[in-house]
Amino acid sequence: MGDKEGAIEELKKKYVRRALESGNIGTTAKSAGICRTTMRAWINKYENQIVEEMDREILPMEEGPLSRQELEKRYEQALKLLGEKELEVAVLRDLFEKKSRR
């Protein structure tokens, strides 16, 4: 698989994970700029793999206390995700305001 195809597949998996985590396929599809049918197809293709990845991420938390380095890594990931979500909300608000002005 080429770099471009691999990047596209990773992007699809990212949106599938977001849809599974949020439980809102329609909103996730809209933020990805695709129709719900396409999002459903992606979920059908990648759901098992993504759920397994999510389960593996949860298991270490059950094994005991995390190291400072691991906590810092997770904190940075959370901040990054928060920033992405804030940007997404800002874009959606901007679109909503533009539509409501018409």
UniProtKB/TrEMBL annotation:
InterPro entries: Homeodomain-like_sf. This is Transposase. The lineage of its organism: Bacteria, Bacillati, Bacillota, Bacilli, Bacillales.
